[in-house]
Specification:
Elements: H1 5-21, H2 33-55, H3 61-90, H4 93-107, H5 111-120, H6 135-158, H7 163-181, H8 185-190, H9 192-212, H10 220-237, H11 249-268, H12 274-279, H13 282-289, H14 291-309, H15 314-340, H16 347-370, E1 405-406, E2 412-416, H17 418-428, E3 436-440, H18 461-473, E4 483-487, H19 497-500, H20 504-526, E5 531-535, H21 543-555, E6 564-565, H22 571-583, E7 588-590, H23 593-596, E8 601-602, E9 605-606, E10 609-610, E11 612-614, E12 617-618, H24 620-630, H25 632-637
Helix pairs in contact: 1-2, 1-13, 1-14, 2-6, 2-9, 2-11, 3-4, 3-14, 3-15, 3-16, 4-5, 4-16, 5-6, 6-9, 7-9, 9-11, 10-11, 14-15, 17-24, 20-22
Amino acid sequence: MQYRHEIDGLRAVAVIAIMFFHTQSEYFSGGFVGVDMFFVISGYLITGLIITAKQEASFSLLGFYVNRARRLLPALLTVILFCIPVAWLWMFSNQYLNFSQSVIAAGLFGTNILFWFESQAYFTTSIVGKPLLHTWSLAVEEQFYFIYPVVLLLLLRYAKRFTVLGIALLTALFLAYTVFFIDNPLTRHYMLHARFWLFGVGALTFFMRQKWALGKGAFSGALAFTGLILMMLWLLSFNNGSIPSELPRAIDWWSYLSVLGIIVVILFSDQSNSVGRFLATPVLAGVGLISYSLYLWHYPIFVFARIRLLEVPMFGYLGLSVLTFIAAYLSWRFVEVPCRIRRRLGSRHFYLYCALAWITIMSVGAYGVLQGGYVIGMTPADNVLKANYGLSPTCEFVDRATECKLGPSPEILVWGDSFAMHTVDTILATQSDAQLLQFTKSACSPLSSGVNASLHIGRRSDECRDFNQSVLSSLDRWPSVQYLVISSRFSNYFNHQRYETLNRQQKRAYVDQLQNSLLSLLNQIKNNNITPIVISEPRRPTQAKIYCAAHALKFGLDHTSCNFPSSEISNAQVLVKRLLKGVSSEYKVIYLDQIICPDSRCLTVDDDTALYTHSGHLSRNGALLIGTKLDIYNQIKTTNR
């Protein structure tokens, strides 16, 4: 296969776009399309390598996989080995647990599946602080390498005349399936079957260029320039700060234009036209040569810098980029190149290095998972970001009362979703021997039993309805219960697309319906001779602010920048306050904002305590601090019955 310097230039554009995107600047939010560029280029190159080797009768499937291993594994293993000690020193226990899982997944070529699975879960670590998050695309590519060569070889052997048609049909089918049948944007982002069409169009691009000798015609330069414009417009056009997993379907349609631009550039760029010469300039081609190492090194360097420094300004990213280029060049020069060339590193030494490195990272990853992320050298303070489940994670199930009950005759029952879990500690803060029951289920608001099922957000309505009905039906089993505390993320009812499509009158009716449903539920509890109390959800900072607070305390840095102005409180939470105010004339409502938002600012750190753990949930120490300051236990006990 003829070597094309302009392909190296395209690689350079792709990796630089991705690096700009990962600076988190709103002006480069279209840069993630660089991953699409890499997938198209891979489809083009892999097809070309296989077809050329078959024509020269020198292709071996085993040899292909060995070459891919020499190309990809050494640098990847080296970067992971670098990440391990830094993560060990700088991460909290829950972050290190997540990191350990990603280390194992990377060693098994499955980080895309891991991150897809984690993104569906409720209690997960945010994308902030995941140094191996970018390896999802390598996992997709590695999975493609396992499948595509076999498919192509079968076509070449048993249906040679229809090889191109077969690949075209597969590409069209996967594209149609992705566009019309995959609704989950996280699936479209992470999974191979949603990305296969990109590799397919790359393969078809090779066949088209080979058949028609494109790139030499009179209009090739103009067409290549048009493709370059389409490609660059997407990279620079979106400044809304979106991340790929949150992109709406409408924006996805625009990305297909960028893919078209990439295809046109590959087809028509050539040394005989200006676009080809531009992409083949020594600077761009040189960056393209080290693009794999650049891609591997830039993200962990950026992530660890954000962990250690809290915030990285744009000029800081420029400095980090210089460091990345140095690391990438050294990695390319002393790891990639020697491992790729057999005469410089024989098979025995190559396999030995890969085996030792793989065993090391898998062992370290397994140790981190088995320890729950709490590894040697950590202190109890490193558990600050650990999910707060209250008494036990098993309290999601009503029939597990043993570990979810304090005292033989519980007086207080806590009911709700994951926000009710951290409420347990606010109650126990001033009365650690309080007799208490916890019945909670993540993402299941108690209102799901009293509101039309279509209004319930976050889980299947029937699952939450069954859970809530089981709680209500179990009240007679606990005659000692005098108070029932409800806590929930009520803002979910206002924080979804369907609510935003309502007009003003419909929104007012929606709030009234929720308020009536809540009052009806509280009345039902009262009719059981139990006093209901509602505890509000805390104000919810971004995950970046939550991590900022935890790491500021860990590293002894100024944490004032981790606070957030009350003006940034979402409209959904403002509506929740209005909802709760509507029931406060009849029932006790305790507002956590008295401590969290004492004035125009809201706190993420108070009295040297990190208040939050994840997605607005209170940390254990944060809940204890707020519960102490508000004396929530006595507020409950003194509520009129």
